[in-house]
């Protein structure tokens, strides 16, 4: 399993090759830092899609995908499905937009209570946090904050300058 952070082809979340599984979707006001990146009002509700990634039967990553209402305008309000079905509906709406580019950042962090529970780790366990801004029509159309278990991932750098996160067996230092 790998997540390319290089300059390869850009794709929307939820595409046919996407290894993430939709878990849930709610409409809520995001944290202020997220609202600032999305350029939404501080009290404006966005779609928050929760997805997970599993490898060899164990959780390796948890993602929160923040999608402004304007990026999914055709999503029916009152008759919209809930849970994973609603998450898939929001992802389908993103596919309708033309993706200009995506911008990635990787940081080291420690698992908060929610991420720790979802990743089967103790709070404070080391994690890699990959933040991806998806840009369409010159504005941020979605923001992904994906938290990867550090004990199942490693960063590798290739000749092309890309960065990938691979899940696999741990290597012991000798």
TrEMBL record:
Residues 13-154 form the UbiC transcription regulator-associated domain. Keywords: DNA-binding. SUPFAM superfamilies: Chorismate lyase-like. It comes from Streptomyces africanus. This is DNA-binding GntR family transcriptional regulator. InterPro entries: Bact_HTH_transcr_reg, Chorismate_lyase_/UTRA_dom_sf, UTRA. One of its GO terms (molecular function) is DNA binding. PANTHER family: GNTR-FAMILY TRANSCRIPTIONAL REGULATOR (PTHR44846:SF17), MANNOSYL-D-GLYCERATE TRANSPORT/METABOLISM SYSTEM REPRESSOR MNGR-RELATED (PTHR44846). It comes from the Bacteria. The keyword DNA-binding applies.
């Amino acid at each position: 399993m790998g997540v390319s952070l290089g300059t390869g082809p850009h794709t929307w979340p939820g595409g046919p090759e996407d290894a993430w599984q939709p878990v849930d979707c709610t409409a809520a006001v995001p944290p202020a830092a997220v609202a600032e990146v999305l350029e939404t009002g501080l009290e404006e509700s966005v779609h928050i899609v929760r997805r997970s990634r599993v490898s060899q039967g164990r959780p390796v990553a948890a993602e929160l995908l923040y999608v402004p209402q304007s990026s999914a305008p055709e999503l029916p309000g009152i008759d919209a499905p809930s849970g994973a079905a609603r998450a898939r509906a929001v992802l389908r709406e993103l596919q309708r937009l033309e993706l200009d580019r995506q911008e990635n950042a990787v940081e080291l962090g420690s698992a908060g209570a929610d991420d720790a529970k979802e990743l089967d780790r103790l709070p404070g366990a080391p994690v890699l946090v990959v933040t991806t801004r998806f840009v369409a029509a010159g504005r941020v159309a979605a923001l992904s904050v994906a938290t990867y278990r550090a004990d199942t991932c490693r960063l590798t750098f290739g000749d092309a300058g890309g960065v990938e996160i691979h899940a696999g067996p741990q290597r012991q230092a000798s």
